[in-house]
Each structure stands twice: as structure tokens, then as C-alpha cells.
Design goal:
Its EC number is 2.7.8.31. Its main location: membrane. It holds the Pfam family Bac_transf. The chain contains 13 helices and ten strands. The protein is an alpha/beta fold and about 450 residues long. The chain folds into three domains: about 120 residues, no CATH class; about 110 residues, NAD(P)-binding Rossmann-like Domain (Rossmann fold); about 190 residues, no CATH class. The strands form three sheets. A six-stranded mixed beta sheet has the order 2-1-3-4-6-5, with helices on both faces. A two-stranded antiparallel sheet has the order 7-8. Helix 1 packs antiparallel against helix 2, helix 2 runs antiparallel to helix 3 and helix 3 runs antiparallel to helix 4. The radius of gyration is 26 Å and the shape is flat.
């Protein structure tokens, strides 16, 4: 399986950080004392995050029109003005000069708007004149919509799409031929004309895209693909459909999940692992020789490999990276049985979370040898790599943790992982964490 990347992932976080910095920098003109400064800046940050989420202020893409950016900025400015005045009205009544507040807001939004516009035109120029920040595409089908989309890509290089080929489905052009071309030419996005493809062909392409981490979008008609959870976008005046919208692609959601992960991980590391690790180290060392920690290569976000940490629960053996632990496995030590039964062996993965390789909740990562096998034989298995793996996950608290005993086990696990990916919320993460703690106390029949 080839390495597959995600694109433009740093632009939104960078702009978000710059905007907050602008608001804080210009806010220094109010000369608050230290405590009031912390309160004011915290209020600004939280309000900005919530308002930006509500208005989708940062949901700006390469095909977004300039008028949309302007209207978003105006809406953000108007509502944020009320928010800022609410702060001064609550704490200062009428003792603050309104001209100074308006001056602060005007300066801040002028700079934010200029940065947003400058970035918009810079990226367009960068794509058009230098050929950077582009995505390779193919179009499957030669309907009127396909040809219109091809013209859009060719005539508007500033959007950063390079159409490598338009396929006419015929006896000489099979789905397998298209799939091979996509892999050989490192295509990023596949656009399908639903009018030219049968449902069977559409499902074949969807499975291929999911299993190879390719973005797939559709030029719509009345096919039954509409029964799926779809996301509508507009390229100019042409409507295009994405197969799914992943909540964690949102900057704010990504920030909230990362903040939650880091906060919880620091609490566990400082207040639990700091004293638990020395005690477990003594127990592990007394029973068998070897290191206290066990690390194993796993596949994470975008199929990248990383070392996953655990407390060692088995005697050192050459099969540790090849075979999962099974019931009554002789490789497991006595202390290891307790660790695995209570899931305490997974606790060092909070260090993986701090490093950014994992999340507290997400699809469980498999050892590399198993992942390659599942990727080739289990439909949509690769979809779970669109987000970071987790210490625990929805599949694990739903009865599909531990050893994969049958083919149906991994199929059901993938179904739960995809549901989680498409329906993520912070509340769902908390629910899964509480269920994990409950299962650890009660004991899970598959924890061995």
C-alpha cells in the first residue's frame, strides 16, 4: 500500500492562529490589569471559536468565491461586535469609550480581512503561475456535466486542479483500468458522472476509493447514491457531491478534539502513570526479563506507521509482531493477564496521544502485518485511516475488541469505525471513554 497524503492541512490552523493573535495584539490597547487581561483574552478566544464554528468562517476552499469570503467576514464582524460590546457592557457599564472599542474592532477586522484576501489571491496566483498546491484528478464518464467540469479545470488553473484524463466507460475501458491509472499516476480525486455509470460500477469505484484513501466526488443525477450521507459543494455554478463529510476535517472540531486529548493525557500521565509505572515496572521485571515497555509498529492517520507503546504483558518472543494474543496464550505473564484484563497495558499510549500520533478515542490501530492483510481483503478497511487511531474506540466498547476470531469480527469493527468517523462529536468521545472505564472495572470477556 502506497503512502497517501492529505493536502493543505496546515493553512486553516495557521490562519486561525494568526486571527486570534491579531485580536489579542490589538486588544492590548485597553491596558487591562493582568487578571482582566486573562479574562478578556479568554473571552475573545472562546467567543471567536464558537462564532467561527456557527458561521463556518474558516470553511473556505479553493473553489470558494471572493463574494462568499467577503460576506463571511462581514457577518463575523457584525456578530463579534455585539459580543465584544457585551463584555464591556457587563464589566464596565458606560465607563469605556465606545470609539476606542469601535477602533479596536475596525483595526482587527481590517487586518483579518486583508490577510484573508491576500491569502486567497496568493494561493490562486501560486496555483496558476507556479503550478503549486494542486490536486490531480480524473473524470469517469463523458456526460455533459463531465465535459463542463473538464472545461472548468482546464480554464481555471487558479483553482489548482489538474485533470489527467477523462474516461469513457466502454468495453475497452474497465473499472480495473481506471483504478490502475489512478494508482500509477498518484491521482488525488476521482469525479464520477452518475449518468454514465451503473450502480454496480459506482459501488466498485467507491470501494476502490475507500480502500486506497482516494477522495471521490460525483456529478449527480437520480442514482441511488443519494441514499448515502452526502456533502454538496459548488465549483462555479456546477454542483458536485462528496461521498462523506468527516466532522474532524473541521478546524474547530479538530482543535476541540486535540485540546481534549492533550488535557486528558496530561491528567493521566501526571496523576496516574507517574506513580503507577514504577510499581508495574517492579512487577513486570520480577516475573520475566525484558523491558517494562513494549513498542510495536502500527498504522495510523493516512496509513503512516508509528510505534505504539504498551506495558509489556508477554514474555519476549519472536511472534509478538505476527500473531495476536489468543485465549489462554502461554506467552502472557501473570501480571500481563491482569494488565490485559483491566486494559492497563494500553495506558502508555497516552504518550502517543501527546506526540500527536494517536487520539484518546478513535479506530484501534492494528499491527502492520495484519493491517496489510485487512487492507487487501476487507472492504472499506482503509477508511478508518482518515482519522487518528485511538486508545479506545466505538468498536471496542461495542463488543469487538481484542482478537479477530472470524471475518465477521473485522467487518463489524470497520462498520463501527466508519460510523464513528462520520458521526464524531465530543459527547460521543466522552460516552466511549465512560463505557471503556466501565468495561475495565466489570471485565470484558474478550480481554485476554
Amino acid at each position: 500500500m502506497a503512502k497517501i497524503g492529505r493536502y493543505s492541512g496546515y493553512i486553516k490552523p495557521a490562519i486561525f492562529s494568526v486571527d486570534l493573535a491579531v485580536l489579542i495584539l490589538f486588544g492590548s490597547q485597553f491596558n487591562f490589569d493582568f487578571e482582566m487581561s486573562l479574562l478578556f483574552y479568554g473571552y475573545l478566544a472562546i467567543s471567536w471559536i464558537l462564532l467561527s464554528t456557527y458561521l463556518e468562517f474558516y470553511e473556505v476552499y479553493r473553489y470558494t468565491k471572493l463574494i462568499k469570503i467577503i460576506s463571511l467576514t462581514i457577518a463575523q464582524a457584525v456578530l463579534f461586535t455585539f459580543i465584544v460590546f457585551s463584555f464591556f457592557g457587563f464589566f464596565y457599564r458606560y465607563s469605556r469609550d465606545t470609539d476606542q472599542i469601535f477602533s479596536y474592532l475596525g483595526q482587527s477586522f481590517l487586518v483579518i480581512f486583508l490577510i484573508k484576501i491576500a491569502l486567497h489571491f496568493f494561493l490562486k496566483t501560486y496555483r496558476k503561475d507556479l503550478g503549486g498546491n494542486f490536486r490531480r484528478t480524473v473524470i469517469v464518464g463523458e456526460s455533459a456535466g463531465s465535459l463542463q467540469l473538464k472545461s472548468f479545470f482546464d480554464e481555471k488553473p487558479e483553482y489548482g486542479y489538474q485533470c489527467k484524463k477523462v474516461f469513457n466507460i466502454s468495453s475497452n475501458t474497465t473499472i480495473e483500468t481506471i483504478n490502475k491509472f489512478v494508482l500509477d499516476n498518484k491521482i488525488d480525486e476521482i469525479y464520477c458522472s452518475m449518468a454514465d455509470l451503473t450502480n454496480e460500477q459506482l459501488n466498485q469505484i467507491i470501494s476502490f476509493a475507500d480502500n486506497n484513501l482516494k477522495v471521490i466526488k460525483f456529478l449527480p443525477d437520480n442514482k441511488d447514491i443519494y441514499s448515502r450521507k452526502l456533502n454538496y459543494e459548488y465549483y462555479g455554478f456546477l454542483r458536485v457531491i462528496s461521498l462523506r463529510k468527516i466532522p474532524l476535517d473541521s478546524l474547530v472540531n479538530k482543535f476541540l478534539k486535540r485540546a481534549f486529548d492533550v488535557l486528558l493525557s496530561l491528567i493521566v500521565i501526571v496523576f496516574v502513570l507517574s506513580w503507577l509505572t514504577p510499581l508495574l515496572a517492579i512487577c513486570i521485571k520480577m516475573e520475566s526479563r525484558g523491558s517494562v515497555f513494549f513498542k510495536q509498529k502500527r498504522n495510523g492517520l493516512d496509513y503512516e506507521e508509528f510505534y505504539c507503546y504498551k506495558y509489556r504483558s508477554m514474555k519476549p518472543n519472536p511472534e509478538a509482531d505476527l500473531h495476536q494474543v489468543h485465549k489462554n496464550d502461554r506467552r502472557v505473564t501473570r501480571i500481563g493477564k491482569l494488565l490485559r484484563k483491566t486494559s492497563m497495558d494500553e495506558l502508555p499510549q497516552f504518550f502517543n496521544v501527546i506526540k500527536g500520533e494517536m487520539s484518546v478515542v478513535g479506530p484501534r490501530p492494528h499491527m502492520v502485518s495484519h493491517t496489510h492483510n485487512f487492507a487487501e481483503n476487507v472492504d472499506k478497511f482503509m477508511v478508518r485511516h482518515f482519522i487518528k487511531p485511538g486508545i479506545t474506540g466505538l468498536a471496542q466498547v461495542s463488543g469487538y475488541r481484542g482478537e479477530v476470531e472470524t471475518g465477521q469480527d473485522i467487518i463489524n469493527r470497520v462498520k463501527y469505525d466508519i460510523f464513528y468517523l462520520e458521526n464524531w462529536s465530543l459527547l460521543l468521545d466522552m460516552k466511549i471513554i465512560f463505557q471503556t472505564l466501565s468495561n475495565a472495572v466489570k471485565g470484558d470477556k474478550k480481554a485476554y
